[in-house]
Amino acid sequence: MRFLRLRVPRAWKRRAASLPGGVLVLLGSLPPAAAVLALLLCAQSVERTTAVPLGRQAPVRAAAAHRAARPAIVPRSAWLDGRTGRTQPPPRYDDKVVAVFIHHTDSPNGYACADAPRIIRDLYAGQTGARAWDDIGYNFLVDRCGTIYEGRAGGAERAVIGAHTQGFNHRTAGIAALGTFTAGVAVPKAMTDSIAAVAAWKLGLAGVDPRARVRLVSSNGLSRYHAGSAASLPVVAGHDQGFMTSCPGAALTARLPEIRQTAARLQGRPPAGKR
Fold this sequence. Notes:
Layout: H1 10-17, H2 21-28, H3 32-50, H4 58-65, H5 77-80, E1 99-104, H6 116-128, E2 140-142, E3 148-150, E4 172-177, H7 189-204, E5 213-217, E6 230-234, E7 236-238, H8 250-253, H9 256-266
Parallel strand pairs: 1-4, 1-7, 2-4
Antiparallel strand pairs: 2-3, 5-6
């Protein structure tokens, strides 16, 4: 029996050289035409396997590893209650959230937590009324019992552009503590824990460490920085670090290091000094 003699290209021979010895023995037992076909398939398989850039996959796995669980969030429909009588303009979005700004609402502290929806509704009425904003400025609000409320419309899980820190609303989220937290005022642990939980979740979606710093560019000269200038700010920052204000108050500002550490722990990050 005579077999057709086929010429094997040099490139295929080079690829065959990288195949395991057992495969080459198997190829030698086949008729020439079948061996050439098998050689081609094996060479293509090796090429596709070795072309996968494994190193580039690491950042994706690392980001996923540092995602925190989404905390329970009361939807805005629970406090808005359909009573506004106004048409809500469409929300605007960024690609991701890389920093959060912490605020206080400068409202009374002695409220019952059941009254939080009414308080938020009053804040909304003031900001969309006298101030003529398109919506409530904060993306999230947290009451003294630790209940988290969705603020600005557009979807809690999305990077909704807020109106919370003039000059630095892009790629950031605003989290407001219901109350006034000036020097000497007690800040409830339930409140700071929930603020940390929101920050950990939102920042984790972009793989951002709450204890890090971030470079943000000011879009408005009325902030602490000239329009177009870059600022290096903490990823979890107080309102006063981007805008000329005393917000979020000295008492809440003093709790920011703790909030950052709690948020990092919720993301599963190692303690400082053990990374």
